[in-house]
Amino acid sequence: MKNIVLCFDSGWGGPGSRATNVLELRRLLDDTDSQLVWWHPIGAAWLRMRRRRAISDAQTAVVGGYRVIADSWQRGDRIFLFGAGYGGYCARALSRLLDTVGVLPDRCHHLLDYALATYALPRQGRTPQEWRQVTELTEILAGRSALSVPVHFLGLWDSVRIPGLPRSAAGLPANVRIARHAVAIDGSAFGEIVGDGPTDRTAGSDHIGDHIEEVWFRGVHADVAGGPGGCRPLANIALHWVLDGAVRAGLEVSPIRRPAPVLGESDAVAGHTPTGGLRRLPPAPHIHDSVRVYLRRHPGYWRRLPATFCWADPDWAARGERLLPTPRRVRVPAADRALAHSAV
User: Fold this and answer.
1) DSSP string covering 77-138, please?
2) What pTM did the predictor assign?
3) Is 176 exposed, middle or buried (0-12, 13-18, 19+ CB in 10 A)?
4) Of 18, 159, 230, 267, which sits 20 to 30 A from 133 (CA to CA)?
């Protein structure tokens, strides 16, 4: 069993404070025999790109990610998908594709080419019922059933709809086992939330509720997803929250590269309060507990929050301790210990 980790970035912002959370995550991962890591930047200058080129770039990313899985996935492997901004849209699209057509065998190469061209990044929205019809047709053409391939973990930072494409299908497909989505309270209207509308999960599903988490963080898109123009301390809070869920789910993070436990109240109050571009929060959202710290110093921010909500992740400031690697026990020979004592 191995991990297959696919990272869809919203454009490489460069080193340091300009790096996106997806790039920061990629730097923490080692490509080993037990973990395959793939990273794809999806257009570093979206605002300057023509819509057709933007859609083509995103389709290339989704198809490329699918082929990585098709070439390396074996039953029992765990798939981790990560995305920020437009990359989050691509990660959700790939999870839907894996639920709809699964991993088709090589003998179905004509069917595979058609499925990738038609369903990887469809130009029109589809209902859960329509996606099930696609699955049924694919099962008939492929001569096999139970096509769906599970996505073990889906990690998103402020997923954003790609201009010219429909909003992601409501909810998450049933093949997503665990998910964490960090959403920007002060983000744009193009932002997507997992909780939009009905979902194709059944009420009896054993991975509904606690395993699918969507939490709202203070700041604009770049303050949550990272990248140029964002506040790095705020982005670190969202980075650690998604990373913590992934590590709990079995993601292997390099012991040498793990982030230091730097989160604290100073991070929660960093940056400034945006003056426009506010999005509407859904009823009874989960608000990250770091916002509570900011409210104590800036009570006017209460106006950004709905009347009813829940606080989430109360122990966020202590998370760094959990993300630190466990120190290795080093056995020192008795002769060396005696030599050390004699030198004191």
Assistant:
1) -EEEEEEETHHHHHHHHHHHHHHHT----GGGHHHHHHHHHHHSS-SS---HHHHHHHHHHH
2) 0.85
3) buried
4) 159
Q: With cut-offs at 50, 70 and 90, classify the pLDDT of residue 75.
A: very high
Whether 243 contacts 234, CB under 8 Å: no
pLDDT digits (tens, 9 = 90+) for 5-33: 999 998 655 555 578 999 999 999 988 99
Copy the structure tokens of residue 233. Answer: 């301390």
Q: Per-residue DSSP letters for 278-342?
A: PPPPPSSPEEETHHHHHHHH-GGGGGGS-SS-EEE-TTGGGHHHHHSPPPPP-PPPHHHHHHHHH
Q: Is the pLDDT of residue 278 over 80?
A: no
Q: With the C-alpha atoms ordered 87, 88, 89, 95, is the resulting torsion angle positive or negative?
A: positive
Token code pair at residue 38: 């793939």
What type of residue is 74?
Q
Most confident of 112-116, 160-164, 307-311, 326-330: 307-311
How many CA atoms are closer than 13 Å to the CA of 283, on its beta-carbon side?
A: 1
| Residue that wins the pLDDT comparison between 114 and 294 | 294
